[in-house]
Automatic annotation (TrEMBL):
<dbReference type="InterPro" id="IPR050951">
    <property type="entry name" value="Retrovirus_Pol_polyprotein"/>
</dbReference>
<protein>
    <recommendedName>
        <fullName>Integrase catalytic domain-containing protein</fullName>
    </recommendedName>
</protein>
<dbReference type="GO" id="GO:0003676">
    <property type="term" value="F:nucleic acid binding"/>
</dbReference>
<dbReference type="InterPro" id="IPR036397">
    <property type="entry name" value="RNaseH_sf"/>
</dbReference>
<dbReference type="InterPro" id="IPR012337">
    <property type="entry name" value="RNaseH-like_sf"/>
</dbReference>
């Protein structure tokens, strides 16, 4: 688990941070609105039972993870989702062009991620966590709803197959990631006339909240 800080205070209870919890096996995320100035006691209540559940607490800094990078990767994904919805969403926007109530988006973003295929497991996190996909809004528009709850007799078999498949996919994913990191990264080559996107990481003159600004600006001609 890790925290996202530096968010603009939301309308609901003035949340200005988000606690991100990720299940290592199923990749299921939990996004919880939080307060940056919460006390150590508030945080301790969240992790006091970590030994009982076999959770290893490993501290890290931004972009320099001292663990497996799972939480950091999820945080980057969450920030990207929030920035895109706040910048281009249909909700009411304020003078700086962003929605303030980002906290209200967390349940929908969490559901969207849970029902999407994860590249490591090649399964939906919801399938590995619960054994079935939750019904989405578009399901109510179908003339005939697909039965998503398997019978009790075949449920265990279906779940076991999904877990076994996910384990194999995770092993392949770890092997691929290791092979990729072992190789040196080739320097990108651009020629005159190519169109490029420019990272806004170092830009300090863009209006609005730093955390939900666009990640890239462009296109620009090289």
């Amino acid at each position: 688990m890790d925290w996202v800080t530096g968010l603009r205070p939301g309308v609901d209870r003035s949340y200005n941070a988000c606690l991100v919890i990720v299940d290592r096996f199923s990749k299921t995320p939990i996004f919880l609105p939080y307060h940056k100035d919460d006390t150590a006691m508030d945080t301790a209540l969240l992790i006091c039972n970590r030994q009982l559940f076999g959770t290893k607490l490993s501290f890290s800094t931004a972009y320099h993870p001292q663990n497996d990078g799972l939480a950091e990767g999820m945080i980057q994904t969450l920030e990207d989702m929030v920035s895109r919805v706040c910048a281009y969403g249909l909700e009411l926007k304020y003078c700086d062009g962003f929605t303030h109530d980002w906290g209200s988006l967390l349940p929908a973003l969490e559901l969207a991620y849970k029902t999407s295929i994860n590249t490591s497991t090649n399964q939906n996190p919801a399938i590995l966590e619960k054994g079935w996909n939750p019904k989405l809004a578009q399901d109510s528009l179908r003339k005939e709803l697909v039965e998503i709850n398997p019978t009790a007799a075949s449920f265990k078999g279906i779940l076991d197959k999904a877990i076994d498949h996910a384990v194999r996919c995770m092993e392949d994913s770890f092997a691929y990631a290791k092979d990729k990191l072992d190789k040196s990264h080739a320097t990108p080559y651009f020629k005159v006339g190519d169109f490029v996107l420019v990272s806004t990481t170092k830009f300090n003159n863009i209006k609005g909240c730093e955390k939900i600004k666009d990640s890239f600006a462009g296109l620009f001609s090289y």
